[in-house]
Amino acid sequence: MPGHGQNLDQYVSNFERFEKSLNGESKQPLHAVRKAALARFTELGFPTTRDEEWRFTNVAPIAKEIFVPALPSDGHRLGLKDIEPYLFKADAPLRMVFVNGHWAPALSAVESLPPGVRVMSLARAIVAEHDLVTQNLSKYVRFDGNAFAALNMAFLKDGAFVMVPDGVELSEAVHLLFLQTGGSSPVMATMRNVIVAGIASRVSIVESYVGIGAPTSFTNAVTEFIVGDRAIVEHDKLQVESTRSFHIGTTHFHQGGGSGVVSNAIALGGRIARNDVTAVLNAEGCTCTLNGLSVATGDQLIDNHTTIDHAKPGCESHELYASILDGKSRGVFNGKILVRKDAQKTDAKQTNRTLLLSDEATIDTKPQLEIFADDVKCTHGATVGQLDEDQVFYLRARGIDLVEARDVLTFAFARAVIDRIHVDPLREQLDAMLHTRLRQGRVASEV
Fold first, then answer.
1. Beta strand pairing status for 301-310 and 272-281?
2. What is the DSSP letter of 141?
3. Neighbours of 260 (CB within 10 A)
4. Per-residue pLDDT for 433 more than 60?
5. What is the pLDDT of residues 29-80, one digit of tens each?
6. Which residues contact 46 (CB under 8 A, 6 or more apart)?
7. Could you tell me which residues are beta bridge partners of residue 388?
8. Cα 288 from chain centroid?
9. What's the CA gap between 383 and 400, in Å, rounded?
10. What does the domain layout of the chain look like in residue ranges?
11. Crossing angle (nearest 10°) for helices 8-21 and 29-44
12. Cα 195–197–203 angle (5° rounding)?
C-alpha cells in the first residue's frame, strides 16, 4: 500500500492532461502500456523506508510535492549562448538537447552521420523506428515492481534514440544534454533514452543533466542500452542539477557475447539524487566496468545502487564507486554482484571508498555478493575515513597552507574515478567543476 502523505491523485489528474496532448498517439498500442504503467504506479505508490531497497533514502519530499509534467507546448526561450556553459569544450558534433524532457531541435546538432546510424528524439523514433523501439521499451527496465519506472513509462513522451548498425564505429561521442528550467510550478520531466549498439559496433554516449536557475524540479530518467555481440559501449553520466531538485536515474545495460561496457556516473547535484545502474552480462565473454563519483555538501543525499548480474560463464566485471561528503550530507552505496549457477569462471571485483570531510557527514554502504557458482573469483571491499593527517602535515611542511593541502588530497581522491573518463574535454570540465564544488562546500561549512 502507498505510504501516507503521497499525492497520487495528482498524477492521475496530470495524466488526463498529458493524454489530451498526445492527440492521435493516444490511439496507438503504446498508449495502452502507458495506462497500464499508471495503474501500476498508483498501486505501488512511492517507495518508503520500509522497502529494503530504499531503507536509507526517504523520498517523502518527492511524494509530498505537487509536480506538473512538462509538456512540449510549455516552450522555452533558450538560445545557443544560454547552453554554452553546459557544453564541454570542443563539444561533440553529435548533440541532442532536451529542455524539461522534450527535444529542442534548434539547440541540437545532428550532422554527418555514418550510413545507417540513427540519432533522433524518441518521440520521432516511435514513429520512424516503431518496431525496434517498442520491442525494447520496458523489456529490461520493467515497471511491474518499480514505482519510478512505472511513473516514467506512464508519462513516456520523449528522450533520445541512438542506433548504431552492425560493424559501425562512431568516432565522436553523442552528447545528450538535458536541461531543467523549471516553471511557475515545480516541473516533472520523465525522459526515456534507448541506445542500440549493433554487432561489433562502437559508440560513446555522454548524458548531462543540468539545472538552469536553481529550479525545484523532479527528473525521472531511464536509459536502456542494448549491446550487441562484440560491441563496445562507453558511457558517461554527469548530474549537476540544482540542489533544490530531485533526480531519480535508472540505467540498464543488456550485453551480448564478447561485448564490453564502461560506464562512469558522476553526481554533484540534487537535493535527493538516486542512481540505479544494472548490467546484465547475458552471454559468454562479456566485460563490464562501472565507476562512480558522488560529491555532496549541505544537506544533500546521493544514493548509488548498482547490480552486476553475471548470467553466463566467462565474464569479467570491475567496479569502483567513491563518495566525498561534506557538511551534513549523506551518501548511500548498495552494490550487488550476482553470480548465477551456470556462470562459472566469473571474475568480479568491487570497491567502495568514502571520504568524509565533516564530522556530520554520513555514509551507509552495503557491498553484496550473491554467488551460486563454485569456480569464480569475486572480491569486494568498502573503506570509510577522513583525510590522512600525516599527509596533510607532509604538504604543510612544504609550504602549502591547510586549506590548499586538504583540497589537494581531496582532489587526488576524486581523480581515481575522473581519470577513467574517456572523453578528454569532459574530463577537463569535471576538473574545474570539482574544484568549484569543493570550494562551495568549504564555504558552506564555515557559515
1. parallel
2. S
3. 18
4. yes
5. 889 999 999 999 999 999 999 999 999 999 999 999 989 888 765 556 788 8
6. 2, 3, 6, 59, 60, 62, 63, 147
7. none
8. 16
9. 27
10. 77-122+153-446
11. 170
12. 85
pLDDT tens, residue by residue, 171-189:
889 999 999 986 678 899 9
The upper half-sphere exposure of residue 141, i.e. CA atoms within 13 Å in the direction of its Cβ, equals 28
At residue 135, φ and ψ (nearest 5 deg) are: -70, -15
Report which of residues 154 and 91 the model is more confident about. Answer: 154
pTM above 0.85, yes or no: yes
Characterize the bridge pairing of strands 232-240 and 362-371.
unpaired
Assess contact for 225 and 256: CB atoms under 8 A: no
Counting Cα atoms < 13 Å in the Cβ hemisphere of 227 gives 33
Instruction: Report the alpha-carbon distance of residue 248 to residue 274 in Å, rounded.
Output: 5
The grid coordinates of residue 29 equal: 498500442
Is the separation of the CB atoms in 251 and 279 below 8 Å? no
Contact 160, 176 (CB under 8 A): yes
- What is the 3-state secondary structure of 83-100? HHHHCCCCCCCEEEEEEC
List of residues 6+ apart from 360 with CB closer than 8 A: 327, 328
What's the confidence (pLDDT) of residue 90? 52
Q: ∠ at Cα 280 (274, 282), nearest 5°?
A: 170
d(CA 360, CA 439): 18
Residue with cell 569462471: 345
